[in-house]
Amino acid sequence: MHQYKRSSELFDQAQQYIPGGVNSPVRAFKSVGGTPVFIKKAKGSILTDEDNNEYIDYISSWGPMILGHAHPSVIKAIKDKVEDSTSFGAPTGLEIEIAKLIVDMVPNIDKVRMVNSGTEACMSAIRVARGYTGRNKFIKFEGCYHGHSDSFLIKAGSGASTFGEPNSPGVTPGTANDTLTAKYNDIENVKQVVADNKGEISAIIIEAIAGNMGCVLPKKGFLEELRQICDEEGILLIFDEVMSGFRLAKGGAQEYFGVKADLVTFGKVIGGGMPVGAYAGPDEIMKVVSPVGPVYQAGTLSGNPIAMIAGYTLLTELNEKPEHFTELAAKCEYLHKGLDKVLTASGFDYKINRCGSMISIFFTDVDVVDFDTAATANNELFPKFFHEMLKRGVYLPPSSFESYFLSNSLTYEMLDKTIQAAKESLEAMK
């Protein structure tokens, strides 16, 4: 049985100096209860906490550790580069190399602008869309998360196509009025929102694979119909690929689904897990970005050499060895089949969603296709399952509304241990 003495002590200390004791809310274990586990180090797919307990990792730093933690080539590249300083606040040749690599890998983009997080990337993409179209409003989907910028912290109003309203204090009603919400996978709802705001919508932003209501896949034809609506109405389609970028395929969701986006946003994967993000698009749109155009966006640490060398090294590996993607998908399918078997035997209601190397378990008997159906999952069962798995050395996302992310450092032995842990956990929950 794992002991958490040191983690408990650290959490007590952290709450004295950090709001809630954490620097990102989900880490506080509020939705699962108990004391957060404080991680000391990680290698491959094994996390080690401050009490020296080890866990098989299914968070992968929320996506970017596609090849595992502390990947040797990435670590060596960082160590070598850091000798030259950590930041210049000036251009470097390395920024050109990684930008060219991203343009070569991802369809339909000509230019990339580096920023410092996925939040910043999505915030900037919306600003670019507004500047390019001359329109203020945009559509987001219930259950999709695009960072904590004011415009995105909006929930749906009472009607299907009403203006949004803030769901965080500090977000002004004026900001919320430009944010429209639609139901994921409901194309008729999208059409209604567009019709109700004819000629006023600059962009539709979507997680092509939703990862923040659990793993939720787009229905067949949904992305294609969004593309058609955008073409007909002069709206920009933005794919938020902070989670799916370079994980589903070399070219991300655009390549995987064969659907073109006008702008794409990326997160920490292009920094090998370091604080970084980017937005990208064709010349026609990106020419509105300062200093070429009037849409302003800047950042001292944007394109800093440490994040750039880490990202360049990781993306080069993925670009040169596309077999990583087929291996990851095969491992995720193996895990899916194993979990399916033990969950069926358990007698609990459940659904499993999977795409590429993203997967989620929902304790519900309803197919999960949007936020409403994801919310039908049993809120009492998931925390029990999470802690039973944690006891058995498996670290799942500490929220039922987060996708699991596999890395290719997972071995089939680890997957078997995970499936066995799930079997034992489900038996303990009865």
UniProtKB/TrEMBL annotation:
The modification N6-(pyridoxal phosphate)lysine is found at K268. Keywords: Cytoplasm, Isomerase, Porphyrin biosynthesis, Pyridoxal phosphate. Its cofactor is pyridoxal 5'-phosphate. Its main location: cytoplasm. Its EC number is 5.4.3.8. Belongs to the class-III pyridoxal-phosphate-dependent aminotransferase family. HemL subfamily. Gene3D superfamilies: Aspartate Aminotransferase, domain 1, Type I PLP-dependent aspartate aminotransferase-like (Major domain). It catalyses: (S)-4-amino-5-oxopentanoate = 5-aminolevulinate. It comes from Paralabilibaculum antarcticum. Homodimer. Pfam families: Aminotran_3 (PF00202). One of its GO terms (molecular function) is glutamate-1-semialdehyde 2,1-aminomutase activity. It is found in: Cytoplasm. InterPro entries: 4pyrrol_synth_GluAld_NH2Trfase, Aminotrans_3, Aminotrans_3_PPA_site, PyrdxlP-dep_Trfase, PyrdxlP-dep_Trfase_major, PyrdxlP-dep_Trfase_small. This is Glutamate-1-semialdehyde 2,1-aminomutase. PROSITE patterns: AA_TRANSFER_CLASS_3 (PS00600). Pathway: Porphyrin-containing compound metabolism; protoporphyrin-IX biosynthesis; 5-aminolevulinate from L-glutamyl-tRNA(Glu): step 2/2.
